[in-house]
Amino acid sequence: MAVDTDALVTWSMSGDERHARARAFFERTVTAGDQLGLLPQVLWEFLHVTTDGRRFEKPMTMEDALAQARLLWDSADTSRVIPTPVVVHRVLDLMRTLRLGRKRILDTALAATLIEARIQRLVTWNPGDFLLFDSIEAVAP
């Protein structure tokens, strides 16, 4: 199971109204022995979002966000999902075939990476964003 940025952000930001639900979901997942698939793209977005003072009354400092990202990436509960060179072509093909616009690039890149890595489940607060991708089951925390 892979993790989308929005689920990771709500897990880490205590001021988010869905924080407790996200934490409980991930705790159950890890306790059950499942690893969480994490992509570099998701970590970069995590850094961008959690440090944004327009999104949060108390954003993380970049120092804290970097430390949290490193802990997540290095965790024994994390399965690191690295995009292969094939993913670039898959993203371009999906964008063209599905006639997607610029606002769908990052979700398409995430989906393409998961498809290539044969990961079928994604935890996200926006499961509707992934309905176009038949082999991805998107679930809310």
Q: How would you explain this protein's 3D organization?
A:
Helix 3 runs antiparallel to helix 4. This protein has helices at 5-12, 19-31, 40-50, 62-74, 86-97, 105-116, and strands at 2-3, 36-38, 78-80, 121-123, 137-139. It folds into two domains: 2-80, no CATH class; 86-139, no CATH class. The chain is globular and about 40 Å long. With 141 residues, the protein is mostly helical. The protein has a three-stranded parallel sheet with strand order 1-4-5. It has a two-stranded parallel sheet with strand order 2-3. The mean pLDDT is 93.
Segments where pLDDT lies below 50 for 5+ residues? none
The major β-sheet equals: 3 strands, parallel
Q: Separation of termini? A: 12 Å
For the secondary structure, the number of strands is: 5
Strand arrangement within the widest β-sheet reads 1-4-5
Number of helices: 6
Describe what is shown at a glance.
The protein has 2 domains: 2-80, no CATH class; 86-139, no CATH class. It has 6 helices and 5 strands. The protein has helices at residues 5-12, 19-31, 40-50, 62-74, 86-97, 105-116; strands at 2-3, 36-38, 78-80, 121-123, 137-139.
